[in-house]
Amino acid sequence: MRVRIVRLCSLFALLLAACDPVGTPETYGPPRDVIGPVALGTQVAFVERAYPTAFLIDPADPALRPRLVALAKDPAVVVRRAGQDELLVLSRGERGDTGLPPLPAELAVIPADAKQPARVVKLASRFNALDQSIDGRIAIAHFTKDSKRAEALFNPNEIAIIDLGSMTVVPRTIRSFGSLPLAVVFSPRMTLGQSERSVAVILSDNYITVLDLDHLDRSEITVPLTLPNDKRTVLPRQVLFDAKKATIYVRADAANDVYALRLEPALIMGATDNDFHLALTLLAAGTRPSDMARYDSIDGSRLVVTAAGSNDVFVIDVDSSLTTRIPLGISADHVTLFDAVAPGDAKVRTRALIVGTAAESPQIAFLNLDHVEQQGARNLGTLSLGAGAVGLQVLPDRNQAVVLHRSVAGAPGMTVVDLAHQTAAPIFAEAPVSGVTRGAPGSEMLWIAAMNSNRLGFLGLTNLTAGEVRLDAVVQGVVVLAKSNDGHSRVVAIHQGEGGDITVLDADKPERATARHATGFLLTDLLDRGAR
Question: Nearest CA to 160 among 179, 174, 140?
């Protein structure tokens, strides 16, 4: 079934453009710049920048008519609010020009429920980045490296802390050493003495900043990652937390150590002083660590660290700072932890899956982390794949992992790994795999898009039965939605289309006969919206 969503006013705009002797119907207005898609519960959302509007489409609607929500000028960031079926849209507003008044930046929170109004808060600066806490309670808008900032003057270390429930804003300027924030990472609730605390870790070139989210009136704490005479540029890339020990672990490019920062109670001397300080420890982690994971052993907290270009993995006792090197025999740059049994071992234990994607290693490794310091390589097992690994997606709720391969004739396009049995099932593809998408944890199906292909592949995770459905256009991406009130789960295939182009399928029974192909939905009410 094809649904073409173009109202008369939009069609009129196209006809006017078609009368232009040097134009075509595609040039009726500013070039389309669409952000999305974003899965929003049972709906899929898109945001158009030229005519700033959010489009929310509910595939349960037979007409597939989008709900439109007007936005401020220049939308820059569009994400789903963590833990909520709400869309967060950070818009930068308008600087103003001759005959064009300036318009403020704003953050809009758009509920998926059409009965609930959007909530909007104005921002004092034209931020271009947004990060949110794990629970979706707090968001921090900030500047980051972006050639499109287009500001006469701006303070790169200004931030806005936004309570997404009350929509209140606390402006701050964090201490600066001449860099811009790279990202903001939020901690879980951590134990600090007799209380609990959440912090935001702001990453910048050569330093990090820690901000107490429970006491925004208190000063931030800034920690340099290099000595004053060190000419390196150390870029923090990964942050892990130990909630029980109130410790932050930071991995950085150009640094051979992992930075461990422990929050320790401190005496408050002034009104803006923190009730904690940061104790810094450097943990040896081989050469240029590329990934790390943390777990609790019976002997205390441990870090498992890989290093790109190395054939070793390192296990660090964070309390004693002792490092155990375990030779793998394969290149490794990625580590992920899982709890499962193993061949010949019926006990569920914490284990590590170790993969080398940078060197496209054709082998992966499994490491039992029980007593690993004493057992060393005796706890290690390897598994050969049919091709080199270039990507990895872990499905912890199913104890499975999907390893992607580069397209080579006669070789698999992807491999499904059974983590408990440590076996590999190669899956072949006629075209290079461009994306693998899964729905919420517990979902049975993987959806596979292939380069320049109009066939959407799918793979059942229980019996690894593969199938495909032919669509009317090349599949650019896939969005899996939650189950609707009608009891159906749906998957949305995204196509390249100037006016919006999607295909909606039943996720439980994907068939061409029941698929609905909608085009032109981005043109809905075009003239009514106007070129703002």
Answer: 140
